[in-house]
Amino acid sequence: MMAGDWLQGPYVYYLYSTYGFGKRDIGQLFIAGFGSSMLFGTIVGSLADKQDRKRACVTYCIVYILSCITKHSPQYRVLMVGRILGGIATSLLNSAFESWLIAEHNKMLVSG
């Protein structure tokens, strides 16, 4: 999943340019995504620990799907929402799956 997230960067830039956006607008879209990840990254990990790690992984899938759907729209506001959702999804990707794996492993150690 991480590789897919990383590989899309250059193609998303090209997609935005085909929608007629200039470097400034595209840069703002990317900064919104990175900023969203930075902001929500501090919150998402602890929420996954307090709520349910598996649910956080499913939430990642849903949020990332919504982020991808927004890329089909040439409207700047829709793309901005998609970048923010993408940042949230990236935060989940980098925290929820690993913490879920570790928690399940620890359960197996205790019960086994």
UniProtKB/TrEMBL annotation:
One Pfam family this sequence matches: MFS_5
Keyword annotations for this protein, in alphabetical order, are:
Membrane, Transmembrane, Transmembrane helix
A GO molecular-function annotation = molybdate ion transmembrane transporter activity
Supply one GO CC term from the record: membrane
Give the source's domain of life in one word.
Eukaryota
Q: Which InterPro entries match?
A: MFS_trans_sf, MOT2/MFSD5
What are the TM regions of this chain, as residue ranges? 26-48
Q: What is this protein called?
A: Major facilitator superfamily (MFS) profile domain-containing protein
Its lineage reads: Eukaryota, Viridiplantae, Streptophyta, Embryophyta, Tracheophyta
